[in-house]
Backbone:
């Protein structure tokens, strides 16, 4: 018998310590946003939908954020490898909807949107799953939208 | 770290305190994401499923999570179901011998390069990598039980409820998993592992 045999407790302790890992920051940030959005959605959905002011303001803010995120990087975008879908973000301009159409690219901070012609090339690249990054975004977006619609009912 | 119990945090969140949800998230996120990561073996899929799981939590906190005081086991049940649905869609689990994903790296190298664990730099990092590789060779059912026990810290009854099997089956799967891992871990002694008291 091997004199260094591991006990079950040692193996479980090792698995517990090593198996934990941090989710991507974008994912936790998105979840926190969703948790905040769900609170008013439950409490005051009617009022929020009747508001005529928040949509244009929120849309403007989202556009500004995208613009700032786009201006941040100094490295050439076209050479940066795409890492993953950055996580969905609330799309204020689409009422209750969400926009997942954002990518995380090496060396860049902030989401990239296919609405920007310069970024479209990145979305056309193949993702590891075999689809294009755009298709992957769309597929996840559909799933998240369905969940989100359930949240609001 | 917030000292309040999970049940208290859930109550505060439902009362409108958004920060209470942040505290819940920070308390459980590493274990949940780790579980999804181990089962899917793909960081992107795990991140997607993590978000999906947490959205389900947000959605069902008020209606389905009745004050049973077992937030953690409920959370892992949602994560488990999300992972299993995903794996079914992908037609079962990926073998280490399967075709590598798009980055061209074989699976075993992806696992070996997995450095996002806070444990990665610790003294037992090599042991952890061996354990992770060995765990990936378990059957999916064994992996589920093993990781739910290790990361979810669930009781065997909770594990049985989560995976939908009798208690004895869950116990048997854990037993078989640990035996296989003991065999795999014993094959290559490591300097980093803890000193054993008994030498038989």
Residues:
């Amino acid at each position: 018998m091997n004199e260094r045999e591991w006990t079950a407790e040692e193996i479980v302790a090792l698995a517990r310590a090593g198996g934990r890992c941090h989710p991507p920051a974008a994912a936790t940030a998105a979840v926190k946003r969703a948790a905040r959005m769900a609170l008013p959605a439950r409490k005051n959905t009617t009022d929020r939908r009747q508001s005529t002011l928040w949509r244009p303001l929120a849309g403007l803010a989202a556009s500004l954020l995208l613009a700032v995120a786009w201006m941040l990087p100094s490295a050439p975008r076209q050479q940066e490898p795409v890492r993953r879908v950055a996580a969905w973000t609330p799309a204020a301009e689409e009422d209750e909807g969400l926009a997942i159409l954002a990518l995380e690219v090496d060396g860049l901070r902030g989401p990239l949107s296919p609405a920007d012609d310069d970024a479209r090339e990145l979305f056309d690249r193949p993702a590891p799953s075999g689809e294009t990054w755009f298709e992957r975004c769309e597929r996840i977006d559909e799933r998240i939208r369905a969940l989100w619609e359930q949240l609001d009912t | 770290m917030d000292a309040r119990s999970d049940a208290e945090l859930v109550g505060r969140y439902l009362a409108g305190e958004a920060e209470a949800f942040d505290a819940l998230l920070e308390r459980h996120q590493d274990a949940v994401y780790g579980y999804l990561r181990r089962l899917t073996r793909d960081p992107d899929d795990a991140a997607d499923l993590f978000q999906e799981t947490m959205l389900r939590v947000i959605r069902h906190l008020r209606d389905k999570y009745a004050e049973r005081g077992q937030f953690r086991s409920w959370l892992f049940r949602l994560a488990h179901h999300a992972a299993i649905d995903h794996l079914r869609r992908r037609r079962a689990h990926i073998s280490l011998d399967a075709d590598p994903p798009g980055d061209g790296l074989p699976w075993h190298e992806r696992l070996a390069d997995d450095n996002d664990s806070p444990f990665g730099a610790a003294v037992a990092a090599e042991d952890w990598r061996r354990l992770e590789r060995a765990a990936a060779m378990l059957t999916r059912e064994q992996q589920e039980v093993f990781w739910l026990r290790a990361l979810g810290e669930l009781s065997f009854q909770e594990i049985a409820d989560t995976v939908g099997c009798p208690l004895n089956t869950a116990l048997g799967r854990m037993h078989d998993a640990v035996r296989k891992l003991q065999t795999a871990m014993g094959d290559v002694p490591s300097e980093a592992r803890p000193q054993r008291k008994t030498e038989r």
